[in-house]
User: Fold this.
Amino acid sequence: MSDQREREKRREERLAAESQVDAKDRRQRMLQLAAGAVFLAIVVEVVVIVVAASSGGGGDTEIEGVTEVNQELSGIPQSALVIGDPKAPVELVEFGDLQCPVCKGYAEDVLPPVIENQVANGEAKLVFRNFTIIGPESTPAGAAAIAAGTQGRGWNFLDLFYRNQGAENGGYIDDEFLTAVARAAGVKNIGKWEQERNSPRLTTEVENTTAEAQRLGFQGTPSFAIKGPSTTGLQPLGTLGSSEEFEEAIEEAS
Assistant:
């Protein structure tokens, strides 16, 4: 009987030992499964972040004032950065910097009555020329406006840029922002616009109009000049202070 009890004791000890091993193996497998699940969750999260970042493409920038600008400029001919009848007897030229907050104020408050009246009725045409004095970001902004003008949406681009203008040299003038403004302005062929705005030709044009403003003696933006039947060539006006002063200058140049 003692031998039988001894065998049963050893059998119980063996079963207990095997049970402990099985429990340990189960715990290890569960830990491995849990670690795998955590790793998979991290991978999924990284993939989501990468996909979201790569699909931005300028679509996240919200442009304000689109309806208002379209209404203000509707029905008025545009060519390059000229708005108004190409045969209008008077040409009013603005030398401006798209980063300039004073230019923004003129675009929103001073020039709209002139566009609504004398430009819309064919007495004058309004021309924008880049005068980049604020910083290096002004040049690509100016080139982008010229490129929009080649598709007949130059003034829409200018006005929308001003309505969404950020801080001077603030770094907001990047590909995403410029593309968003171009799309909101109604530029149809974004690929063509993209190619043109990055061309050396348009950069040179921005530099040339800046040099023209300096030859005219301008030192700040916006500065204006006018040309008409009663002027001798392009006559500097400087920075007039109100819509009424511009309207008077147009009448005098007629």
